[in-house]
Every structure is written in structure tokens, then in C-alpha cells.
Specification:
single chain, about 350 residues, alpha+beta, Nucleotidyltransferase, domain 5, 3 domains, 6-stranded mixed sheet, 10 strands, elongated
């Protein structure tokens, strides 16, 4: 790049009759830098040298690359990079080593995502997901702010969350779910994790009342319910902007702020919704199912689950068979499409 710049600057100064000082000033480069580059160019040296002390020992890039590949690479960070730099600090700079680590991390993350499934929902009102989370900051009394969040996955729409100084108890979860189904219309399916307060007779009674079919995420696999897991971070980021300054709010009275944050994120245009916001998309694409349709779907999924047990030789759990049956029915009904990256 600098060699092209020197050639271009020489041509401009020659054609216009400018001095080197004036030509360098016109392009915003100090004359001393241009003179230094020209001197190095005449000696066939690198025009720009990396900062820092020169390494006296040549680096074995292949060995460094092998060690980098064996590190634990996350989505944003790599464990063990500091220890690796301590090992190779005499042969490579921290900047160059970090560039190699970043490149390997990006490669491994992309490789992992090759096996992920990309799910597209054909409308809203099909599946809700619910989960609990804790806000990143504590209130003025040092209490945690616990949030119970329900989300329409198809529309990316956050329904009115609950919050308090303690996690939502089973009766509160059931009452909140009953109120949401009354107000917004019950979904066809409900996705939940294995939390003790989400899997109780009270919650199951509400689901049976509205003919909602539940299915659970695999144990210790939050990525299965990744849609609401990601939305938790979005909700908490918006909540941090809604809450008063640190030390001036109380978790027991923060629910209006939590609901305001949910309202705000529901009205942000999303690329995944083709530029529409969750509120408008949900209003335009909500699907409804009668009780007779729900009972017919439940019978169909129950039969599919039984068939899965017979074919798999009872080697899968009841929750696994339920997930497979629900997924198969959704794909067959055209309510969900699954694509590989």
C-alpha cells in the first residue's frame, strides 16, 4: 500500500510541479514519513516496521499454530492465550500471536456452527418459551432482581414479564401463564427447561386447561431453548437503560421497569422479521387453533411418541421422544422449517 502511495505521490508532484513538502502536506502525510519511506524503498526494505523490540529468534509458526488449535476457543474469548504468550514471548509479539488466535477462534466457531440447525417459524402463536433469569446488577439493598420471562418464539415477542427479589414460585408461574393465555390466546406448544418451578402440577393444570402441549429442553443444554436465552440478554440490556442510576432502585418495585423494557424491545425493527417489529409481526401472523384441533394434534403427537419408543427400543427418554414427535409434527404441518447452515 505504501509503495503504491509513493508512486502516486511522485507522479502527482512531477506533473503539477509541486515540491515534496507541498505534495505530502496536500495528502495529509508528514514530509519526514515520506522521506523515510523513500529511503527504505531505495534500500528495498520494508517501508513500515511493526512496533516493539525485534525478536532475535525465528518463530516456528507451525508449532505455534498447533498449540493455538489445542486451546479452548469460545465464541468471543480463548482460554489459555496468556500462558501461550508467556511460552512464546521471545519469538513472537503479543499482537501477532493474538491475530493468529483470533483467526483460529473464528475458524473453529464457524466450523461448530456448520452443524447447527437454522429454524424458521411460519407465524406466531405456535410456540411459547419460558425461562427465569437474574439481572446483571443488584439493587440498592444488595438484592438480586429475578425475572420470569415468557416469549412467543415465532414473533420474537416478549410477553409481560414478572420480577421480584426471589425466583417465581410454581403457583405464581401458573397464575401468570393463565393470565397470559387469557389475554393473548394460548399457544399450541410451550417450550420450557427443567426448572423445578416450571414443571409442577399447577403449571401442567393450566396447560391442560388451555390444551397447550409442553415439551422440555434436554438437561444442561440451554442452546436448545436458545431463542429465549438470547432474548434474556436483550431484555436485561434494555432494562439497564430503563432503570434509575445504580443504588437508586429496589428489586421489589422494579417490575414496571422490566415491563417497559419488554415493551421497548417489542417495537425495535428486526432483520429476522424483514424489518418489522415483533409487535406488528405478531399481530399480522398469529395462528389460532380450536380445542378440537388441539386434541387431534395431541393424539397425533402421542402416537408418534409411541412409535419412536418402539423404533428406538426404549433407549430414549420420554422427554426426548416428546421433542422428536413435536419437531416432526411441526415440520410436517409446515409450521417450522429447519435448514442447515
Amino acid at each position: 500500500m505504501n509503495r503504491c502511495f509513493l508512486d502516486l505521490l511522485s507522479e502527482v508532484t512531477a506533473r503539477c510541479g509541486f515540491s515534496l513538502r507541498r505534495g505530502a502536506a496536500l495528502v495529509g502525510v508528514p514530509r519526514s514519513s515520506v522521506s523515510r519511506w523513500k529511503s527504505r524503498h531505495a534500500k528495498n526494505c520494508a517501508l513500515v516496521r511493526p512496533p516493539g523490540p525485534r525478536k532475535m529468534v525465528a518463530a516456528d509458526i507451525s508449532a505455534i499454530t498447533r498449540d493455538i488449535a489445542e486451546l479452548s476457543h469460545g465464541s468471543h474469548r480463548t482460554l489459555g492465550s496468556t500462558a501461550l504468550f508467556t511460552r512464546y514471548r521471545n519469538v513472537i509479539s503479543r499482537r501477532d500471536l493474538q491475530a493468529l488466535i483470533n483467526r483460529e477462534r473464528i475458524r473453529q466457531v464457524a466450523e461448530r456452527r456448520e452443524g447447527y440447525d437454522e429454524v424458521h417459524w411460519q407465524g406466531s402463536g405456535i410456540v411459547w418459551a419460558m425461562d427465569d433469569t437474574v439481572h446483571n446488577e443488584r439493587d440498592s439493598l444488595g438484592n438480586d432482581l429475578h425475572i420470569h420471562h415468557v416469549r412467543d418464539i415465532g414473533a420474537r415477542y416478549s410477553l409481560q414479564p414478572m420480577s421480584g427479589t426471589d425466583h417465581a414460585y410454581a403457583m405464581e408461574v401458573a397464575a401468570n401463564l393463565h393470565a397470559l393465555c387469557d389475554r393473548h390466546g394460548a399457544p399450541l406448544f410451550l417450550k420450557r427447561d427443567n426448572g423445578a418451578n416450571l414443571n409442577t402440577p399447577d403449571v401442567d393444570e393450566v396447560l391442560a386447561l388451555f390444551c397447550v402441549i409442553p415439551f422440555n429442553s434436554p438437561v444442561c443444554m440451554p442452546s436448545y431453548n436458545g431463542a429465549i436465552e438470547r432474548s434474556q440478554g436483550t431484555l436485561k440490556a434494555e432494562l439497564a437503560r430503563q432503570l434509575p442510576p445504580a443504588g437508586k432502585w429496589c428489586a421489589s418495585t422494579a417490575e414496571p421497569f422490566v415491563r417497559a423494557a419488554a415493551h421497548e424491545i417489542n417495537h425495535v425493527p428486526l432483520p429476522s422479521l424483514h424489518g418489522s417489529c415483533a409487535c406488528h409481526y405478531r399481530a399480522a401472523t398469529t395462528r389460532t387453533f380450536t380445542k378440537n384441533e388441539r386434541k387431534s394434534i395431541y393424539d397425533c403427537i402421542t402416537q408418534m411418541r409411541k412409535t419412536i419408543f418402539e423404533n428406538e427400543g426404549n433407549t430414549v427418554s420420554i422427554h426426548t421422544a416428546q421433542r422428536w414427535a413435536v419437531t416432526a409434527w411441526l415440520v410436517k404441518a409446515g409450521l417450522m422449517t429447519i435448514n442447515r447452515h
